[in-house]
Amino acid sequence: MGFLDEFKKVISNSLRSKEKSAVAIDLGISSVKVVQLRKERGRAILETYGELACGPYNDLAVGQATPLSADKYVELIRNLFKEANVTAKVGAIAIPLSHSLIVSAEIPEMPEARLPEVIPLEARKYVPVPISEVILDWWVVPRSQSDFAPATDASTQSSETSFSLDASASGRKMEVLIASIHKDSIREYQSIASKLNLSVDAFEIETFSSIRSVMPNDLSATTILDIGAGSSKIAIVDYGIVRLSHTIPKGSQDITMSISSSLNVPFNKAEEIKRRLGLVGDVEKGDLVELISPTVEYIFAEANKTMLKYQKDHKRPINKIVLIGGGAMLKGILEVARGIVGVPVVLGLPFDKVEAPSFLNNVLKEAGPEFAVAIGLALRKLEDL
Length: 385
Hints:
The protein is of the alpha/beta class. 33% of the residues lie in helices and 27% in strands. It has 3 domains: 5-97 and 184-216 and 350-382, Nucleotidyltransferase, domain 5, CATH 3.30.420; 99-182, Dna Ligase, domain 1; 221-347, 2-Layer Sandwich (Nucleotidyltransferase, domain 5). α2 (70-84) crosses α4 and α5 (206-214) packs across α11.
């Protein structure tokens, strides 16, 4: 089954043949990111990218998390398109994890042909609203390593994958990953796209976009930790499939608020101090590390607990943690993380998946963690062109 087929718009074949560029929009509550890629001889070429903070559009400071109304998002994106010189007429929008739900469920083993009738019934146990109000998709999780086919991105996770299932096996279970998105969220994003005169026929939960952009080309168990403004999100990916998704209720905004409160400075000044010094600098009124460390340590301690539980439950070691999101750019964060968790910690490098001028290498490497979702989503959209 195709994800969000119910809401996809039809684009004529003639339009598809003409369009070679696509723009991906990552709608955050702290900032909005866009990436435009061009498809050329099977390669993904970076044409432009950009970011604008949401705060000023609600009379708040840069870095402050604030959900915007649809009209405010349209205003922001128009300005961002102009600043970044976005020219693509087709695109895709990432669905925030907060507007979706990803759960792993065990159900009696059965032929996959029966799943369309069984999954909605099972999903009622987890989805807090009527099933008629959400869109569902699902993937069967193979039972053992021998059942897995190599996968490098979320697009390979399909409910049409072939498995050898014994429908008559008594008492045997199968694991299914279920994803749901509220229909109202899709309607709102469709409205935003329409006001931008942008043809959007692809919507994807941000977790799957980030997997596509930063996951290594192997089947090891890896944790993707997205340190956002209002929260941090963990996805444990094993054999190319999301096996666990968890949200930590602290993010980079909490760090700024700690600095603001401790130093008695405005939020915007605290944000500037955080970005300039991070975990490696001192301020006049004390050691900045002492102010920031409790929040950072909490995030990684929670991530470590989640990983330890997964390793215990599944008897699979976690290979490493890949950091993405604005909080991943905090100076000194890698050193602090490595002292808390027992696995290697690296920064996500999503721009490595696209071609760009070599003189931009350092800039793109530094900005990369923030654009993991947008890059992964743009790569997904290029597959349709």
